[in-house]
Amino acid sequence: MSMPEENDAIDMCYVLFCILSLHLGPALWNFVSKKLLNDPKSIVVDSYEFIKTLIDRRTANSTFFTTNKPSDLTQLDIAQKGRLAVAHGYFDEVALNWASYLLSWIELLKMIDAHTTAGTVQQIYDELISGSKTPMDIVLASFTKPNFVNQGLKKESDLTRAQYLKAIRIKLALYKCMVKHLGPALRSEHLRRKGAVRTNSEIDCQNLLFDLLEEWLLQPQHADMTTNVKIIETAKDGRNIVCHANLPLILTDWEATLLSWEKVCRLITNVNTANTIRDVYIDLKSRIDLPLPGTIWRSTAQSKYFANLVRRQVVLNPTWRRPNFKITLTKKPL
Ligand SMILES: *[C@@H]1O[C@H](CO)[C@@H](O)[C@H](O)[C@H]1NC(C)=O
């Protein structure tokens, strides 16, 4: 799959995961518990185990459900394959078969007499099939609205509902790009530079960018030092606006953020990831085409999160001696 296709498949998979968690799993728990096939004291909601149990029972007993159809076992098999694809990130399968997975889950819900839930999932299926809603629309269909939305106040926080949803969409896309692409690239470079091997799965972009920043600040003779420091600082500010959910800055600076992440990857000579992030940028720009209604107040107070002041001194004043303390980080890469 191309990157945008893969991205769509991941969004779809996320919707399927939500349906499993919010609808299918709980309905299965209710049914197997009522049938005394499950310890009613157990609060494990494992769709895999439940579907496996239903396949065994239905195989042994052709009148196991209230209504029994010849297609029951085929549907149960597809339902289980759908759960497998979602749980294991088989995105190719999800892209090809999401509709049949959803239909089998609807059939399964009917088998276990969960007709209301079947109706809810059917409605999601219909919206996806008709193209009236994207997977992301469905995820965003229900959200807790912070009170600053649509308050009509003339201040920074006066976001319209459209601006708010746009900021959330961009934030989710940026976060996904960070954890999937930027983080792993920074980690590989860091391990390579330190001659270390990977011992855990911590990929803290903030720390990794701090470390890279320090690496460059320690090379004041390098012709590109100032330029590269600027790129890394922009990338780090981008990480901060996403992780600290600075919605005004997400709306105004998301393009600069993605482009700085791309540049950081070029800087660490990870051309593939740089190209991938460029694709994410182009794709997101084509999707986030909603013009912003009204102007967004652009905060200038971005350095308040994690100031680089100590490290900055090295650039601004080469004779300045680094103090023997460091900015306290949550956890510093080894
Ligand atoms: C088959 O399942 C039905 C419904 O759960 C039950 O009433 C019936 O006793 C089962 N038959 C056998 C042979 O277990």
Structural write-up:
With 334 residues, the chain is mainly α. It is 65% helix and 0% strand. It has 12 helices and no strands. The chain has helices at residues 3-34, 47-60, 72-88, 91-111, 115-130, 135-139, 161-194, 205-217, 225-243, 247-267, 271-287, 309-316. The radius of gyration is 25 Å and the shape is elongated. The structure holds 2-acetamido-2-deoxy-beta-D-glucopyranose. 2-acetamido-2-deoxy-beta-D-glucopyranose is lined by residues 61, 63-64.
Number of domains: 2
**What small ligands are held by the chains?**
2-acetamido-2-deoxy-beta-D-glucopyranose
| Rg over alpha carbons | 25 Å
Strand content: under 5%
Contiguous runs where pLDDT drops below 50 for at least 5 residues: 300-315, 320-334
Molecular shape: elongated
Biggest sheet descriptor: none
Number of helices, where a helix is a run of at least 4 consecutive DSSP H or I residues: 12
Q: What level of helicity do the residues show?
A: 55-70%
**Spatial gap, N to C terminus:** 36 Å
Structural class: mainly alpha
Mean pLDDT, rounded to whole units?
Answer: 85
Transmembrane segments: 12-32
Keywords: Membrane, Transmembrane, Transmembrane helix
